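Re: the multi-chain job from yesterday

Posting the exact lines I submitted so nobody has to dig through the queue logs.
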Amino acid sequence: MERLQSIPKAWIYVILLVVLAGPLLKPIGIPIQISDEVRTSFNAIDSLAPGSIVVFGFDYAPGSAAEMEPQALAILEHLAEKQVKVIGISFQAQGPQMAEKAFANTAWAEKEYGVDYINLGYRAGGQAAVAAFASDIPGTFSTDYSGKPSTSFPIMQGIKTAADIDMIITIAPGQPGPEDYVRQVYGTYRTRIIAGVPAVAITQVAPYVQAGQIEGILGGLPGAAEYELLVEKPGTAVAAMDAQSLAHLLIIILIILRNIPNFFGAKQAHAQSVSNSTQKGRGGRS
Amino acid sequence: MKTTLPVAIMTVIALIIILDFFVADAPSVQWIKQSGLVLRSWGIVISAFAMGLGAVNLLRRHVVTISRRESGAFYSVLLVGSMLIMIVVGIGAGQDSPVYDFLFSNILSPASATMYASIAFYIVTAAYRSFSAKSLESWVLLLTAVVVMLGKAPIGAAISGFFPVAADWIQNIPNTAGMRAIMMGAALGVVSNAVKMFLGLDRTYLGLRD
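And the result, structure tokens for all chains:
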């Protein structure tokens, strides 16, 4: 029984590797249900009229791209289909490169840069930069990623503050993230916000969603997979869902194995204490 | 004077930023709006300098490690070398150059992704070792974790429709209520700390103990 509490680390690593690699190589096809929050996000983006201006915050880095990039790609495909205009920004130093990659790997590659979409690059300053962006977009992002004046592009004509934007979509695993957009943009301009966050950050953002300040959220890889299904373009997130499901199951099995001795140990201890008290009771009477 | 002036500057700047958030767009208060705009731009410039300062500090620290041949000097050589290459290529050829793109896509991205992915292995072993239920509270925690883990992956719904519903309930009701309480507590703490700073009662940000 005690062996269950001391499975060597190396064994666990190997089992996890097999559990993750197996379904990626040969998918099982576990059905994916669409959650309410992802459907709400989809409907919000779907309600955008052609020509609407959407600011897309590429606030993630290569480290978290495995979880965040599928969300960005799925939403970008939807935005391309809706024929809106996208202004890419980033408050994360490596975000502009992620934006370049995302635009190149979606339907946006066939659209015209500067007219249909633009990558305005990165600005340092965290929440202060978000506040500056909200009140003065061309001033805060005075050039695009390649260094050309942002106001020289047709897409930027008439864009001054966050009031001129129809929606902000931020894909952010950390700070600055959706909370900063709520505080600095929604608080003053009431701009609609959709957020893509890692699965572990859903709880952090949930109060803003319940308050209606964030219109919809996508949580981690499952959120991306659900969105891919809604836009009918299954990609890497859908492919990874089987692996994630089995990994969750493995963790649960390991936790159960770890606790079997505790469970039976507690039962034995309880039985022992009952028998002791019975014996004491008999001793008292005799 | 040594402390009064910085406190006064900080208070005036903070009040302008706070007022800017609340005042309307009326012409009579445009000076507040404009001042807020300028101050936020300064904030961005200061942040950019802070990043540069951080880079210089990192470089200095690791150059010392290399020159003294301390343990781990090899990793410092790697760090300094990588940093210098990215700086030279980024400034020299530009961020949108093919060389920079190659380094970003083929070295930085896979290396970062590998670091992030390896966390999964630590999480699994950590969960196995730490989730040892020995009291009623820990059993409750354990069962909640199992329900949420199953409910947030497609396999949960495949096993039973109960898991996604229960996971959503746990997330939206008790979990969010707790998070909201933490956030409100933190917000009140920030407000009270700000008031203390405005009044000069908290001067720790100036490097003073009281």
